[in-house]
Amino acid sequence: MFKLKKITLLLSTCTLSLSASAITFDDQSLLTTSYDQISTYTQEGAYIDSIAVPYSGTDSQNVRDLIFDGDNVYLFNGTFNPSLTIYDNNQNSWQEHFITGWSIINNGSYGGIDKMGDYIFLSNQSTGSGDTQTKGIVRFNLKDETSQNFAADIDPIDLTIGHDGALYALTPSGSPGGRFIHIYDPETLAETQTISLAELFGFTEHRSIAVDKQGNIYIVDWDGELHKINNNAELISTTDLCTTLDLVNCSFVDIAISASGKVAIGSSAGGLILTDSELTTFDSRSVAADPIFVSFAAVKKPQAPTPPTTPKPGSTNLLMLGLASIIKISKGINN
Length: 335
Known about the structure:
Elements: E1 13-19, E2 29-34, E3 37-42, E4 47-52, E5 63-68, E6 72-77, E7 83-88, E8 93-99, E9 113-116, E10 119-124, E11 136-141, E12 147-150, E13 158-161, E14 167-171, E15 180-184, E16 191-196, H1 197-201, E17 206-211, E18 217-221, E19 225-229, E20 235-240, H2 241-244, E21 252-257, E22 262-267, E23 271-276, E24 283-286, E25 293-296
Antiparallel strand pairs: 1-8, 2-3, 2-25, 3-4, 5-6, 6-7, 7-8, 9-10, 10-11, 11-12, 13-14, 14-15, 15-16, 17-18, 18-19, 19-20, 21-22, 22-23, 23-24
């Protein structure tokens, strides 16, 4: 059953363009953010380069989550007055979009952003009075720079577009946070499913999610655990990374998965963990002093249904007697 619970608000935006120092990302890049910069690595974790992220708002800067679509890098940049900051990978230039009604609680591990087609999706929380009381998910149109807020009955701490084409939001904030996953159709904005992580794991704190092509959900916790569940909310595996890797800091803030199944996890103390969808081998290293968010290059598009093949007028079907199979001979069908 589809549940449609949304409030639609047309939110004004302010756009600024800024010059930039040059840095190049490609479709094999692993990107991280920490405080006020983007860093790029190979997918095996070798450091390549970094660049400072501009911010011209009235807030203190805190670069949170990011997404790289192969052409541009999109960043959740700020807290109470955040900027949707965009780095043009081809022109080496920056843009900032300030969206009325969009903000997030001052928790450095919160914040989600993703992209599908011409739309950016941003987690939104109520942080004050007036416009900042809105919460839910902001969908920003890159073509006409208009925005709308939907799913106003939740306050997500993270969100992602899965490689299966659905939109996933982790909620609520507070303690323990991240006890539910709400799943939406990113085109109609209808809610299609809700998963209770509390029923699976009890009184635990979940921080970030990623979803592979099969709809399997990867979940990282504030207490150092990594879970994998299927799209029927059945547990596949749990790994205590704190014990497995003998980590000093076990509080995870972000997780990302590539289309090929590579997995990256960022911690609150700048730790980077690399693995794959099998979750059997892990590589851990320290790359920063602040919380890091992670992203692989990903072009995510709606999963359009395969249209049925309908023979055009004039096509012919012949039944060949004496054979066990039916051979269809169609004239003029465009496959």
